[in-house]
Specification:
heterodimer, A: alpha+beta, Arc Repressor Mutant, subunit A, 3-stranded antiparallel beta sheet, B: 376 residues
Chain lengths: 248, 376
């Protein structure tokens, strides 16, 4: 928190320049970075690394992917000539200290998320909030999409959810505005991708897994979940099973 | 399309199979029937008759009563289409025969169809049904068991600890939702199970608490600022007003007292002769000063220090009140007189000339700068 404030305050003195994307797009080569690194004091670079670690941790709280542009603007700033080194070191720190992995889910727009590398300890959920419940809703939708062949129409998804007492038009006692949660929050968090189906009137939408879903869970895990719920072996669904086994 | 010729062709087309434009429409019937037959052989028994029935129908003459039955058919088609659209999942379920049933119903309806309008609806339904058929086929992979979303939903509800008090009497009905009551921790329970399947970076919390999430902070800040400035303005405003009022009040009071002093010295010098009101108030150099003098003098009169009356020439004069008692009397009797005095700029000029006033009796207060109000 204080981290952010600090960077914001000093941001004023530096002034906002809008062309940071442009600057970074001409990625310096490895040797250039090394040369630039020599010009900086190690303390300063390490300071930036820990600032970035803190920034990433705080930013991840809402599970909204972190854009490189934001990292540059809020943390790296005048150190952008050694950007790649800072982000690598921050990734290492996250890995070694927190057991988290910094994953670039979109290499074109440079969007990062954090995933956990450690197996989740059983019964160690210290924090109880409706994030957990939301995850339940999410895995149901992800399961539905996967089991239906990696894509499902919006009508089918909502009809399925209706069976679970989740109505898009009604306020849900746990999720509140469910429609918003599914079509906005999950999409923004990159768990879901919703694309309109061309030439449909009224417009229909296709629900698919978003990049975060693929990183945080896997087809294998989702199939395991479905199998557990239905009291069957994952091999029961032959084609889904082969597909899940084939995906890393 | 002409009805008469169309219907004639229709009846013949069944027997002859002649390729006329209208046959393509009805050609859908046997095709559809066939597809349905393959999916559900037991129904084949009564299928064969239907095309004949529809073949006979158009030969009947078209009348006014027909319009009503046509409307009814259209209505039934729309209802059927709507029902199918609303219950897609049910239609797609490998267990239910809903799609077959819907097709049968459409077949029955089609036996009454004679005009293009109804046929269009039939075609529309056919598009819908074939889309569903395609989806159904997609789900059916030869060697594997299809994913049954209805069963999955039921198992999920069971996992979440649904309390099925009600007997499922409405199963596979229009809603397709089985009864039962979900406990309040249902989703929490499912969520806890779910966490095992996610490599989700755990969100942390501050042991000593923290600021709540980001967005409210700037909003609060704005509110606080607004409140603060609003408060200051509020506080500043009355202070300013008070001051103005005070100073104004003071100035008026001072003026009144000064004039009273002037008046009293006059009375002392010459106790019995009243002073002409105009002599007193008119300032020959300034109309505005004149008006102000009248204003101030009115206070003196209100407070009973002097009396205003008309002399024999019906001209206003001002005279001292006799003593304190009289003053008290006036007040006590509630003699609050109102006098409306009009004085235009023109009249002021005339008075100055008539009374030959050259100098103001009430000298303008020195501290006041009223040059801009002066009239040349």
């Amino acid at each position: 928190m204080s981290q952010r404030k600090r960077s914001k305050v000093s941001g004023f003195s530096q002034g906002d320049d809008g062309d940071e994307d442009f600057n970074v797009s001409q990625t310096p080569t490895h040797s250039q970075v090394q040369r630039n690194l020599e010009r900086r004091s190690q303390d300063q670079v390490n300071q930036k690394v820990s600032e970035l670690v803190q920034f990433l941790l705080v930013k991840d709280q809402k599970k909204i992917p972190i854009k490189r542009a934001d990292i540059l603007k809020k943390v790296i700033r005048e150190y952008r000539d050694v950007y790649s080194e800072i982000i690598n070191r921050a990734g290492r720190t996250l890995q070694e200290v927190f057991g988290l992995q910094l994953v670039e889910i979109d290499t074109r727009h440079h969007i990062y998320i954090l995933t956990s590398n450690l197996p989740r300890a059983e019964g160690e959920n210290l924090r109880r909030d409706n994030q957990t419940a939301k995850l339940g809703l999410l895995i149901i939708i992800l399961s539905f999409i996967f089991m239906r062949g990696n894509s499902a129409k919006d009508g089918a998804v909502w009809e399925f959810l209706r069976r679970l007492r989740v109505q898009p038009g009604e306020r849900h006692e746990v999720f509140g505005d469910v429609k918003k949660l599914v079509t906005e929050e999950f999409v923004r968090q990159k768990y879901l991708e919703i694309t309109p189906i061309p030439l449909t009137d009224p417009p229909e939408f296709k629900y698919q897994w978003g990049p975060r879903a693929a990183k945080e869970t896997s087809k294998k895990d989702v199939l395991r979940f479905v199998a557990k719920i239905q009291g069957k072996d994952p091999t029961f669904w032959t084609s889904q099973y082969t597909e899940a086994e084939a995906t890393p | 399309m002409s009805e008469a010729s169309g219907s004639g062709d229709l009846s013949s087309s069944w027997s002859s199979g002649a390729e006329l434009p209208s046959t393509s429409r009805n050609g859908a019937v046997p095709q559809r029937t066939q597809s349905r037959l393959s999916s559900r052989p037991p129904a084949s028994g009564d299928e064969g008759e239907e095309p004949e029935a529809s073949g006979e129908r158009p030969t009947q003459p078209e009348g006014a009563g027909d319009e009503r039955s046509r409307r009814m058919i259209r209505n039934q088609y729309r209802e059927l289409i709507y029902n199918v659209q609303q219950n897609r999942e049910d239609m797609l379920s490998s267990k239910s025969n809903r799609l077959t049933e819907a097709l049968e119903e459409a077949n029955k309806l089609f036996s009454g169809v004679s005009c293009a309008r109804e046929a269009v609806l039939d075609a529309q339904f056919l598009v819908l049904a074939s889309n569903l058929g395609k989806e159904k086929a997609n789900e059916l992979h030869s060697e594997m068991t299809a994913f049954d979303s209805l069963a999955f939903a039921e198992d999920l509800l069971t996992f979440m600890g649904i309390n099925r008090i009600e007997v499922e009497d409405n199963d596979s009905d229009s809603e397709g939702i089985s009864g039962g009551y979900l406990p309040s921790n249902a989703w929490q329970k499912l969520g806890e199970e779910t966490e095992k399947y996610f490599r989700r970076a755990p969100s942390f919390h501050y042991m000593l608490g923290s600021f709540k999430s980001d967005p409210p902070v700037p909003r609060q800040r704005i509110e606080r600022q607004k409140k603060a400035t609003g408060g200051e303005e509020k506080r500043a405003m009355p202070a300013q007003l008070k001051k103005m009022e005070e100073s104004h009040q003071e100035a008026t009071e001072k003026e009144v007292e000064r004039i009273l002093g002037l008046l009293q010295t006059h009375f002392k010098n010459d106790p019995d002769t009243p002073i002409s009101f105009f002599d007193l108030v008119i300032d020959p150099n300034s109309f505005a000063r004149t008006v102000e003098n009248i204003f101030h003098v009115s206070f003196i009169i209100r407070d009973g220090f002097a009396r205003l009356k008309l002399d024999d020439d019906k001209l206003p004069i001002i005279e001292p009140s006799k003593d304190n008692e009289g003053r008290e009397d006036d007040r006590g009797a509630g003699a609050r007189n109102q006098v409306v005095l009009s004085l235009s700029h023109q009249e002021w000029k005339e008075i100055v000339e008539t009374y030959e006033i050259t100098e103001p009796m009430i000298s303008p207060p020195c501290q006041r700068n009223e040059d801009e109000m002066e009239i040349p």
